[in-house]
């Protein structure tokens, strides 16, 4: 299956049908995010951890302003994830410094999986 064949890959019953078809690169990014979230949900969680996770709402830090493309994707994906995990998600927009402010907040958070970063490849900050 190629990404170029949008009509087959993104059918009307696709989970990504809610996204506007403005550009194929946005759709590819959205597909990668959905696949990444699915991998987070289904892989690498031990049975013992799966029984207690999540024990509280999950904070998704988006290092861009509210109302932007990544914010819309985060809200759409976490809506579905909330249903699957039977928990709530908090979207925390932290724009500025090329994404470093949001990334720093996630680094400083407890390492328990209740704070995650959702960032596109175009907003990474680089140390020089």
Task: Tell me the Rg in angstroms.
Answer: 16 Å
Question: What share of residues are in beta strands?
Answer: 5-15%
**Global geometry:** globular
How many DSSP-defined strands? 3
Strand order of the largest sheet: 2-1-3
Estimated structural class:
mainly alpha
Number of helices: 5
Helix content: 40-55%
Summarize the helix and strand pattern as letters: HHHEHEHE
The major pleated sheet works out as: 3 strands, parallel
N-end to C-end Cα span: 39 Å
Question: If you had to describe this structure to a student in words, what would you say it looks like?
Answer:
Strands 2-1-3 form a 3-stranded parallel beta sheet. The model is unreliable at 1-19 (pLDDT under 50). The radius of gyration is 16 Å and the shape is globular. Strand 1, helix 4 (69-85) and strand 2 (89-93) form a beta-alpha-beta unit. It is built from 5 helices and 3 strands, in the order αααβαβαβ. It is mainly alpha-helical and 128 residues long.
Summed up, what is this model?
The chain is mainly α. The protein is 43% helix and 10% strand. It has a three-stranded parallel beta sheet with strand order 2-1-3.
Index terms:
single chain, 128 residues, mainly alpha, three-stranded parallel β-sheet, 3 strands, disordered N terminus
